[in-house]
Amino acid sequence: MKVLVIVERGKGKGNFSCFAPETINNCGLVGYGSTAREAMADIEVSLKEYKEMACEKGESFPDVEFDFRFDTGAFFDYYPIDITAFAKYIGMNASVLRQYVTAIRQPKKEQILKIREGIDKLSRDLGTNLMIDQPAVSYVK
User: Is residue 53 over pLDDT 90?
Assistant: First the structure.
């Protein structure tokens, strides 16, 4: 069963968490860490522990596949993208984006959409084979 998991950054340094909005077998799955990756690994541990407890009771626990979704801060922690360069790329004030990333400010829905569209555009741009495939001087005849 595929389960949605929200990965988020809290205020301050090293304050990441993730959670499944829906319970599974009346169990709430959560994870915490000093990075998004650590929080994601911790929720995997939580799942493993719930499975072990169910097994000890002679009960079954469904196989779970996590579908991780990031808030702005967790996204930029998980993917090492330069915030200033990305802000320039999408036409956003870098200081404002940095405040979203560090959870000082919460972006409004319109700003989240602008960031998502920028990520989609970057994904498409990176997937279009923009890099040359040999040293630049080899193109000169």
Answer: yes
Is the distance from CB of 111 to CB of 100 less than 8 angstroms? yes
Question: In whole angstroms, what separates CA 128 from the centre of its chain?
Answer: 23
> Whole-angstrom Cα distance, residue 6 to residue 58?
30
Q: Are 32 and 16 in contact (CB under 8 A)?
A: yes
Residues in the chain: 141
CB atoms within 10 A of CB 125: 10
Give pLDDT tens digits for 77-134.
999 999 999 999 999 999 999 999 999 999 999 999 999 999 999 988 887 777 777 7
Tokens of 48: 């493993």
Check residue 84 and give its pLDDT: 96
- Using N-to-C axis directions, what is the helix angle for 94-101 and 109-126, rounded to 10°? 100
